[in-house]
Each structure stands twice: as C-alpha cells, then as structure tokens.
Amino acid sequence: MTRPLIISDCDGVLLEFIAPFIAYLDSQHGLTLTLDSFALTGNVRRADGTAIDAMEFPPLLDGFFTTHMTTQQPVPGAVAALATLARDCDIVVLTNIADHHAVTRTSELARLGMPFRVIGNNGPKGAPIRALLDEFQPSTAVFIDDLPPHHSSAKKHVPQVHRLHMVAEPPLRHLIPAAPDADARIDDWDDALTHIQTILGAAK
Ligand SMILES: [Mg+2]
C-alpha cells in the first residue's frame, strides 16, 4: 500500500518571503517594496520613488537567496501541520528556485523543523508534479501553492491531484484572488491540515 503524497511550494506557503525580502531590499540595497498589486518587479523602488527595471530584479532575488535565505521563518502552523502529515504521507517541497539554492533550502527547512526532500524547479509545476506521481505512485496526492498559474498547470497535467490554493502571507491575501483551477482556497495551516486530512480520509 503506497502512502499519500503531499507536494508543497515553499515561499509564501512554508516560509515567509515578503517580509524578509523587503528587509533585505532595504538593508542591502536601499530599495523599497510596496505591494499595491501582486507584482514584485514594478513595485521595487529606489529612494527617489522610481521603479527598478525588470532586468534588475533577478539579481536581487538571487542575492536574497544567496545571503538572506536564513532570515526566512516558517509560516505559522506549517511546521506542526507537516509533522502531523508526515506520519502517514510522503512530503516533497517543489520550489521555483535554482538548483544551488535548493541545496541551502533543504538544510534551512530541516533546521526549521521541516526535514523534507526539496526539488528546485523553474517554470510551471504540472510536469514535475507528474514526474513525482510516476516516482511515488501515491494512493492520493495533494498539491499546495500560493500562485494561481501553478494550479492551472497542475490541473492540465495531473487533474487527479487535489489542488489547495494557500496564500499564507497576510500582506498578499487580498492581492491574489482564489485560483480558478484550484479545488480549494485555504490560507491558514490549521484549517488546511483539517481539510487535507478530510481529503486523505475520503480517498482511503
Ligand atoms: Mg510560492
């Protein structure tokens, strides 16, 4: 009997991203990030109020993960919820991050109480989710992410996977509407755990 598989995003689902990224932009680069809309690039500004160019953003993000990943703290409830799920489920973290950052992310998540396999991905997540299903052959699978396009990709490639849309960071909740291709929208880990356990129980 195979075990259920939980596939979770990291930034904005397991670890806080926005607050530590804003602190990094300020302390290391003298930049601000004001989230009036859910667009990181156009909302990063210099002291004079001008927005940075799109091509300036990727190095900032890479710099954050290189030197400040250790400032990212778990989202409330995530560690306890995953520890509970790990008793009966396999858990994989599928995160859009470069391979070399995925190594650090693995050790950081373990240090924070989430000792799970981490896969660094680039782009839509449907295909890597399908690869994980092929590998694990789980009895049932749940995918958790804060970005709607990943739920659309998952629906397209692996429609049988239960898709849970979670925006765990309060500053982003009102900026990201419920993903149309997700099965549920739950932003809190305590409620999400109950929901996932119901899904897993129904699949037995
Ligand atoms: Mg995310």
Key structural traits:
204 residues; alpha/beta; Rossmann fold; 2 domains; six-stranded parallel β-sheet; two-stranded antiparallel ribbon; 15% strand; globular; binds magnesium ion
Question: What's a concise summary of this model?
Answer:
Helices cover 44% and strands 15% of the residues. With 204 residues, it is of the alpha/beta class.
Low-confidence stretches: none
CATH topology of the largest domain: Rossmann fold
| Chemical compounds bound to the protein | magnesium ion
Mean pLDDT: 96
Report how far apart the termini are: 11 Å
The beta-strand count equals 8
CATH superfamily placement of the largest domain: HAD superfamily/HAD-like
Main beta sheet strand tally, sense and closure: 6 strands, parallel
Number of helices: 9
Strand-residue proportion? 15-25%
Shape: globular
Count of the domains: 2
Radius of gyration: 17 Å
Question: Which CATH C-level class of the largest domain is it?
Answer: Alpha Beta
* Helix-strand sequence: EHEHEHHEHEHEHEHEH
Give an overview of the whole structure.
This protein is 44% helix and 15% strand. It is of the alpha/beta class. It has two domains: 5-16 and 73-203, 3-Layer(aba) Sandwich (Rossmann fold), CATH 3.40.50.1000; 18-71, no CATH class. The chain has a six-stranded parallel β-sheet with strand order 5-4-1-6-7-8, with helices on both faces. Helix 4 packs parallel to helix 9 (189-203) and helix 6 packs across helix 7 (148-157). It starts with a strand and ends with a helix. Bound molecules: magnesium ion.
